Amino acid sequence: MSVLKFPKRLMARRRMLRRGIVVGFFLGVVFFATSCLPGVVASPTSGLTFGKGPLDAIRDAASRTTTSGPSSQCGLSSLELAVMMMAPTYFEAGGPVPSPMALSRWDNVNVRASNVNLFAFGQTTGPYVNAFFSPGIGLWQFDSAGGWDLTAADAINVVTASNVAAAHIASRWCEASRDPYWNANEQRRRAFAWGAWFGCRSSGSTAPCENRYQQLILEGAINSAQDLGVDTSGGMSSRTCDVAGLGSNLPCWYVNPANAQGSRGWTSLTYDPARPDFVTPLPKPFYVVRANGREYRIWLKVDTGYDIGITGSHPVTTNARVSMVWERQANLCDKTQYRGECGGAPPIGVLDSVTVGNSSINLKGWAWDRDTTGVVPIHVYVGAVGHAMTTGSSRSDVAAVFSGAPGNTGFDITLPSAVGNQRVCAYAIDVGGTLGNPLLGCRDVVVTSTPRGIIDDVVVRPGAVDVSGWSVIPGDPSTTAIISVNGVVKSRLTRTVDRPDVQAGMAGIELATGFSGSIDVTGGRNVVCLTTGTLPIGSLGCRVVTSPGGSPFGALDVVTARLGGVSVVGWVVDPDIASAVTTHIYVNGVGYAVTANANRPDIGGGLPAYGPDHGFVVDLPAPGGVVNVCAYGINVGVGAHTLLGCRTTTVPTGSPIGVIDTLTRSGANVTGSGWVFDPDTAASIPVHVYVNGVGYAVSANGNRPDFAGTMPLYGPAHGYSFSIPVAAGSARVCIYGIEIAGTGGNVLLGCRTV
């Protein structure tokens, strides 16, 4: 609810605020309250919003007040006090987000005749009405009539104002316990504590601050959203000022209603001198200074547009309505912004940027001397070499920030420079010649001149070119030689080769301007180019070469069957590259990618330009039986993939094979031995022995060197032997080799009667 909607209530409110702070104590009865920083609901539901900075200040003041001091033992928690502090601000400062800068607008002469003294020189009409000394200030609208030890800046600063509001409300809460009526319940105690604020007065069944209080508490925390755009200053700016007669380097504050944070309904409506019952003037921007026990509000001509500066002051703790002194002067210099009556102030400005060109530098920035509306001399030093220039280019951004600054404060200067590392500094020269020439800024830059270079030689070899030459950017020894092939940057070569011939032709450059390096290329026509720095590709020259190219060639030398697969041997070379080639090998149509990088001295001897590392030796899985193997060289660059050859072999497979070497009966046992293997595997296999139909499992893993001598692919571990008990009488013994891999089935090795 905006303060603008309560034109009559503020008279009563002013009377209440004049009471000041009353601090009460309980004697004999002590209440203990646990206080801490009040929490804030994470997801508020009240629909209310409060400034983030003000809320933090209120929470801190409430915690401190309820933890220590004369009002800390009255049973008031920090949460309760914080919300009691927040509630009146919605009806005093007004709006959905109460503004810390709110200036009262309802102190016209119809409220009380003495309000005329709040107008500059006591004039409610005329050219100076907006130099108005607003008596009610800030979230709680502290009025000078209350005797508060607060300037306008103190009342706007929520940290200061929160401490005063917390002490006052907590004191009133404690004081209410002395009166049985006010102490009947907590709601009445809160009403008593809010008594100084007219906006909290109940009307009929309406209790505005009590209702707002209930909205603002939820589950032991503050039920309000936070506006991050409102800080503890409310849009007021801290400055440093010199004020004639008061002192130098004084803390001062700049209050501009246009910069107010939070709700700004109080800035609306226009003063009408013919309506003394309507709003008072909205003050023009002003400065606040506290000195010698007085509050000074100072209006500069640059802010008001008036023909005079205006100062209004009163003793801080007095009612401004009856103690105002008005002066037709504003002897204030804002030293932070150099505004106002600063006299011969030194120039100000900034060196925005320094960029380098071809043996040149460019400086951009601005400078303003308040003692002139003309150009400002600028002295620029490049190393030890000085240059005298002036401002003169347009800088509307500077004029927008600094009131009174002309539009020609900019400079955009290009100067010659020696190459190499340079320190560039710019100074603004004081027009009066007595207040100093401030440094606008310095930059360290590397100044260069035209890049130079050449490709001396390009040597072609398979898959690469060897490039040599030189490059230089005078002034920048850190550059590299950038080599591109067919428009694509391939390498940045460090220049490490001494080139006295190049240095002799260009004074001041480094000795190591030469480069040499190998660049990978593919076969065919290749355009090899040189550049450096930020120059486009090819700026320093190109060479066109033809590199060897064509389809891969080679051979599939050997395909050997092995258990479960094949061993494949061969070689392949791609004329486009000296490095290894990828080979695709297909076994009965199943493909495998292999890198042909095995050592083949025979290939290196026959093709020395390509080296020996082009062989492939690989074992690949294959099913038993006839297997077809084909190998392809995969092309790089010019040409196409090449078939290196196909070969056929037979991978061992089938049912187990074996013999019965011995089978005899000795007493109550049958003994036997022999060997057996499965062509699909080198592993030992099981043997099943049946005696009169009763089976026994035996493993054929005994050592048989004789078998290994004739079947080296399978090894010696294929012998079997057994001794099995047998009943009296003849016995029929049958022995089987058991299939465990590949194709085939179990095989009867033989039967005998013993």
Give keywords.
single chain; 754 residues; 8-stranded antiparallel β-sheet
Provide a compact summary of the structure.
The chain is mainly beta and 754 residues long. The chain contains 13 helices and 45 strands. The strands form twelve sheets. Strands 12-11-10-9-8-7-13-14 form an eight-stranded antiparallel sheet. A four-stranded antiparallel sheet has the order 18-17-20-21, with no helix packed on it. It has a four-stranded antiparallel sheet with strand order 22-23-27-26.
Q: Terminal Cα separation, in Å?
A: 120 Å
Percent strand: 35-45%
Task: Report on the biggest sheet.
Answer: 8 strands, antiparallel
Mean pLDDT: 90
Structural class: mainly beta
Describe this structure in words.
With 754 residues, this protein is mostly beta strands. It contains 13 helices and 45 strands. An 8-stranded antiparallel β-sheet has the order 12-11-10-9-8-7-13-14. A 4-stranded antiparallel β-sheet has the order 18-17-20-21, with no helix packed on it. Helix 2 packs across helix 3, helix 2 (52-67) crosses helix 5 and helix 5 (158-176) packs across helix 6 (186-193). The radius of gyration is 50 Å and the shape is elongated. Residues 1-35 have low confidence and may be disordered.
Write the layout of secondary structure elements.
Layout: H1 9-17, E1 49-51, H2 52-67, H3 78-92, E2 136-137, E3 142-143, H4 152-156, H5 158-176, H6 186-193, H7 208-215, E4 217-218, E5 221-222, E6 225-227, E7 237-243, E8 247-255, E9 286-291, E10 294-299, H8 301-304, E11 310-315, H9 320-323, E12 325-327, E13 332-334, E14 339-340, E15 348-357, E16 360-368, E17 377-382, E18 385-390, H10 396-401, E19 410-416, E20 420-428, E21 439-447, E22 452-461, E23 464-472, E24 481-485, E25 488-493, E26 497-498, H11 500-505, E27 512-520, E28 524-531, E29 542-547, E30 553-562, E31 565-573, E32 581-587, E33 590-596, E34 598-599, H12 601-606, E35 613-621, E36 625-633, E37 642-651, E38 657-666, E39 669-677, E40 686-691, E41 694-699, E42 702-703, H13 705-710, E43 717-725, E44 732-737, E45 747-753
Parallel strand pairs: 1-6
Antiparallel strand pairs: 2-3, 4-5, 7-8, 7-13, 8-9, 9-10, 10-11, 11-12, 13-14, 15-16, 16-19, 17-18, 17-20, 20-21, 22-23, 23-27, 24-25, 24-28, 26-27, 28-29, 30-31, 31-35, 32-33, 32-36, 34-35, 36-37, 38-39, 39-43, 40-41, 40-44, 42-43, 44-45
Helix pairs in contact: 2-3, 2-5, 3-5, 3-7, 5-6
